[in-house]
Structure formats: C-alpha cells, structure tokens
Amino acid sequence: MISESVYTLITTRSSPLLTEVYPVAIPQKAEYPAVRYARITSNRDMNYDKVETWIRSVFQVDSYAPSYNAALDLAETVKAALNDYSGGLIQKIRIDFETEGLEDDVDLYRVMQQYTIWHRES
Questions:
Q1: What is the mean pLDDT of residues 85-114?
Q2: Model's pTM, two decimal places?
Q3: Residue 56: strand pairing partners
Q4: How far, in Å, CA of 9 to CA of 57, rounded?
Q5: CB 21 within 8 A of CB 12
Q6: Using CA atoms, how far apart are residues 114 and 40, in angstroms rounded to an integer?
Q7: 33/92 Cα distance (integer angstroms)
Q8: Could you read off the pLDDT of 46-79 as tens digits, one per residue?
Q9: For the stretch 25-50, what's the b/e string if a residue is b when 16 or more beta carbons lie within 10 angstroms of its beta carbon?
Q10: Beta strands 34-47 and 108-120: pairing type?
Q11: How far is the C-alpha of 78 from the C-alpha of 110, rounded, in Å?
C-alpha cells in the first residue's frame, strides 16, 4: 500500500532517523518533534476499457515541533527523504508546495508539505 511506503520512506531515509511518525493523526501523548502524514486523494485515469496501472496520489505531510527552527529542520529532513524518490512501486515523488504556521491550541509550529506520488498498486 502506498501509505505504508510513505511511512517506510520517512522513517528509514531520514537523517537522523525519525521515530515519531503517524498516519492521519498524532496521538495526544506523542513526543515532539513529530510528523503526521495523510493521503488526500488518489486518481486513476481510464484507458478505454481498463484502469491505468499508474496512480497519482497526493499526500499531506505535517512536521510539528516546539520551535520554529526545529519545525523547519524537521520538514527539511522529510523533504530529503521523499522528494525526487523513485523505486519499487513508486515511479516518482515530487513536492508541490510548503507552508508554515503556528498551532496556537497546542503551542507547536507546523510546516505543511504537499507531495504528489506516481505509483503502481501493490
């Protein structure tokens, strides 16, 4: 599954290795800095009478940290692990955009990144 591949890439290709990586939601008792990832969409284009084998999925990856610079550093680590990756079922990963913000309710800085991933189904 593509979500498992994203998790594996973030946790094994990041330097230093990231351990606080969660799908969809970060647990309340998580340690920070932490990363959250979620698939936003997956599109399959039709080719006459069958579905194409390549899928275009869009993922949002949020990097949270108690300081602004720590959030930026974490986001750079994630970008180094994901952007321009190809291998296995993944044809290519490209970053679409980044944005920064402060989550006032939890006093954490966040860098949100959006990635497009072209891949095959497993």
A1: 95
A2: 0.91
A3: 43, 118
A4: 15
A5: no
A6: 9
A7: 27
A8: 666 666 678 999 999 999 999 999 999 999 999 9
A9: ebeeeeebbbbbbebeeeeeeeeeee
A10: unpaired
A11: 13
